[in-house]
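Course assignment 3, question 2. Fill in each field.
Student: A.L.
Task: Predict the tertiary structure for the chain below.
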Amino acid sequence: MHGLGVVCGFGAGAWLGAAEAPTKLVTTGLSPFLISLGMVTGVFVGRWTLPALMKGTGFVFADLRQRPHLMVWAVLAGALWAVANTLTVFAIRDVGLSIAFPLWNANSLVGVLWGYLFFRELRGCGPSTWAKVTGGAAAIVAGAILLGYASSHGITTVSSHPVAGVSAAFGAALLWGTMYIPYRKAYLSGMNPLSFVTVFTVGEVVTVLILALTFEGGWQPLAAGIAEARPSLFWLFLGGFCWVIGDLFQQYAAKYIGIGRGIPLSNTNQLWGLAWGALVFGELSGADPATRILVLGGSAVMIAGAAAISSAAAPAGEQKARSEAVARECERYGLDSAQVEAALAGEESGPRVKQDQKTRRRVWDLLIAAAALGAFLWLGLAARRPALEMNLMAAAVLSIATLTVLGFAGYLLWKRTRFV
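Answer field:
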């Protein structure tokens, strides 16, 4: 499954990068908490709509009933995501999209560490694999240092708070890296990513709502802010929906090749973030040549590090260690080890396949999709072009490229696993 996991990682990078573009609205004066709430609303709709269309809610709930202990882990992961996503908005406000992206992508280092400590990833590997992982980790750190230095030199969108922006980006990296612990725990138990993200969104919505109410001053100020921002809500909602697509690809990458490899590979989103920031929003237009070299060089170094880590395919020794981690989870929670191993191979086995009710679309699945479409139309009718300077041609080209990646990666995932 290594090749499929790599493709999913690249698909995640494209869509996670595109999803952050609407957060540029923070530069127009919108509150970071309001932006995060708008995005999470789109995320909530996406995390219920896509699983309903892809496998049906019957499949999702049957999967959850088999592994109820993982629900609390999914809610916890959603809460971590919500705080991290709010921090990214502050980072974009203070240091710009093209700078903030590579900084918070240091989450791959955190993911590698947790994968090794908790899930026996990289155990039983030879010197070559270890060299790729440690060398890639060093490259990611070096790239982050370069970009952190560049954030205080001459880019037009940088505010007077570069230290705060860099701190917010690294805080997001720590939380997002830790968020992958529940991811891997779920998939070592055989849970389907579509089931996991459905519960995941509960933690997101509750946490962001608490943050927004706390820092916006209560229900009335929050409602007033939402009403005032309605012309921009469509773009935030769309950004959240795009994030769900990227996160689903990331979930499948984590499932099939682990967090130590899947997460660095999905961090190619920094290239897409750099493209959106520099080409569409002109973030590098006022930078001097030295700053541009630092930004491009830092991004290239970080990408090289991520590529080195992701190319370290698991040898036999590590696969054995992974099987031991699976056996531990199965023993702890009374799971069927054969069924779990089949799920990790992109297959379904046993009674789960025979239950037609889990794969048949129900009326409420169509109602969920209709409600999502209605939300898009309602917000779209009130949408206005953001008060941002944008290169529309570059935006169109990047959008087409992102949709192309979706078609290719989605088709391969469906053909090989039917979204198992």
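Instructor remarks: The first helix runs from residue 2 to 19. The radius of gyration is 21 Å.
Grade: pending
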